[in-house]
Amino acid sequence: MNNEDMFNLLVQRIVDEVIKRLNNRPKTALVCFTGAAIGYTNGLKAMEKLRKDGWQLKVLVTDSSKQVLDLDKIKKALDVDQVYTNENVFELKEFVKTADEVILPTLTINTAAKIAHGIADTPVLTTISQAIMSGKSFVCAIDGADPDDEVRAKLGMGKVPAGYRKVLRDNLATLGTFGWTLCAAADLYEVCAEKKVSECAAPEAAAPKAAEPAPAAPVSAPVEGDVIVSHIISRKDLMTRKGQKVVKVRKDAIITAFAAEAAEEFGMKLVRE
């Protein structure tokens, strides 16, 4: 073996070792909770699964979330010693620069509106704005900011005037134009972990815990006539319509990857109305 061959072999070994270490490096994410209660339970469970997968997480919360969410529960579930706030978010500057993703497990209508319109009037929003401008990858569960969310309707907030509903839908659509991945909180883990739903099913997930009773059957998404009016179409929405060959959704609906997968699996055709 001549010197050139030895050099090339050494370079290849170095490249292989670098790739190996990169593949084994735990993924990192800045997890930002806003004050949305809708979708919070599913969002927190998703982040807990990522933590168990070995992800390194730093948690940032808005002032409103401190009033609505249980921060001690978040710290325990995600095994973090500290939750960052507007007061000390500057300490995350270096972490955000190297983080693989920014994840919003909860999103309020107010936060969605501000981000969509480039408003960064708090240190937390400034951090998000800087992450957007630096090209960070964002994944966001939009349940709490979706005017068509079924839980919102059950809470008596489903009679949104058409004009206001359009404003809220447009804000979410704008986030999508930023390159954000928008999803239902129930699909958040699968989206972040880039796994199919079937790959993530666990025995304990099949049956609801006694502390958090669930309905015997999945609840259908809101429907007007025969059209699903939810802004975001999830796998769950289609599971409740097995057997239907054609499922109509809104013209501007966001069809998640898992919904598209379910449609193919169930032999459904999704038609925009």
From TrEMBL:
Residues annotated as domain Flavoprotein: 29-141
Top-rank lineage group of the source organism: Bacteria
InterPro entries tied to this protein: Flavin_trans-like (IPR036551), Flavoprotein (IPR003382)
GO molecular function, one term: catalytic activity
Protein name: Flavoprotein
Organism the protein comes from: Pseudoramibacter porci
